[in-house]
């Protein structure tokens, strides 16, 4: 991961411990952190860790996250955010004893939905890609960084010109969860 490429990135809810290594940025998530709004669980959380840059117009964002050990419901993935009421996220999620899955959430007007794709085998590293073209967004994932599989296509209701995009990490449970951001690649489209 090139440090120069991250110079325009900032933290929303900065984690206590972040450190650079040759293979990426290690992030220790605080416990009881999450991004979620209302719906079935009737609670709001907006205290996860989000490493972002502002983006305008059309773009492609690719993020690769990894973890040696996922805790139940711990997450490390991709996020785009207008504000606390309008955002999208996707990540690997281990809901033991249910097999791992890629989960995605689109939150509009303060209400989160939930969609999941079960994985045929466990993964410790996943690439995510988010593309915006003319306001429409396409969210995909890849087990190898080459072949991307569509998770969902959507449009945020509050479709502002500027949006914050990047990687996120959170741990709704207890214990220490460490994720590694191996790639955060933002490409504006002309």
Describe, in plain words, how this protein is organized in 3D.
The chain is mostly beta strands and 190 residues long. It has one domain (3-188): Jelly Rolls (Sandwich). It contains no helices and 17 strands. The protein has strands spanning 10-12, 17-21, 24-29, 35-38, 43-46, 49-56, 59-66, 75-83, 86-93, 101-108, 111-112, 115-118, 125-133, 136-142, 149-154, 162-170, 177-188. The strands form 3 sheets. Strands 1, 6, 8, 9, 10, 11, 12 and 16 form an 8-stranded antiparallel sheet that branches. A hairpin with a 6-residue loop joins strand 14 (136-142) and strand 15. The chain starts with 9 loop residues before the first strand and ends with a strand.
Could you name the key traits of this structure?
single chain; 190 residues; mainly beta; Jelly Rolls; 8-stranded antiparallel sheet; 7-stranded antiparallel sheet; 17 strands; 0% helix; 59% strand
């Amino acid at each position: 991961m090139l440090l120069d490429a991250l110079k325009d990135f900032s933290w929303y809810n900065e984690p206590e411990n972040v450190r650079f290594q040759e293979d990426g940025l290690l992030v220790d998530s605080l416990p009881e952190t999450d991004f979620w709004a209302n719906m079935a669980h009737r609670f709001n959380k907006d205290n996860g860790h989000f490493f972002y840059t502002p983006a305008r117009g059309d773009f492609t964002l690719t993020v690769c996250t990894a973890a040696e050990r996922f805790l139940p419901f711990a997450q490390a993935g991709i996020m785009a955010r207008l504000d606390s009421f309008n955002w999208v996220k996707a990540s690997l999620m281990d809901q033991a004893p249910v097999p791992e899955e890629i989960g995605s959430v689109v939150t509009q007007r303060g209400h989160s939905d939930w969609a999941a794709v079960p994985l045929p085998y466990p993964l410790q590293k996943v690439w995510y890609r988010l593309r915006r073209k003319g306001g429409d967004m396409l969210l995909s994932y890849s087990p190898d960084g080459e072949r991307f599989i569509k998770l969902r296509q959507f449009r945020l209701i509050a479709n502002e010109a500027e949006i914050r995009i990047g990687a996120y990490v959170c741990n709704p449970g207890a214990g220490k969860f460490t994720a590694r951001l191996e790639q955060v690649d933002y490409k504006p489209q002309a």
